[in-house]
Amino acid sequence: MANAASFTEALKPKTQIHTGRVRLTAFNASHIDAVDTFIQLFDAASTGDVTLGTTTPNAVLSLPAGNGTLRSHVYEPLGGQDGMGVAFTLGMVAAVTTTVSGNTAVTTAIPITFYLS
User: 38-72 b/e with 16+ CB inside 10 Å = b?
Assistant: First the structure.
C-alpha cells in the first residue's frame, strides 16, 4: 500500500519530500495560473544538494496552464522504467518552477499530493 505525502500549498523553492529510498507512484495536482508550471524532482539527500537552475532534475512533471479562473487538474500514475514508479535512492527533493529546469518559483499556491511507496 502506498503512503501519501501531501502538500497543499506551493512548495518552497526546494522542499524535502522524503529522506532515503522511495518510489513516486503517482501525483495529483491542480493550479489556476494561466501559465504552465513544472514540478522538478531530484534524487538528493537534502535540499542543500540541489541548486535550482544548475542541478539536473531526475524527473519533471508538467502541470498545464489553467485559465486564470478555472483550475487545470492532473492525476498521473507513473510507470517509470520498470513500471513501478520513479525511484529515488538518496531521497526526494521537489521544486515547483515556471520552466522545466529553471529556478523561478511559482507565485500561486499549488495543491500537490505525492503518492509514495
Answer: bbbbbbbbebeebebeebebbbebebeebeeeeeb
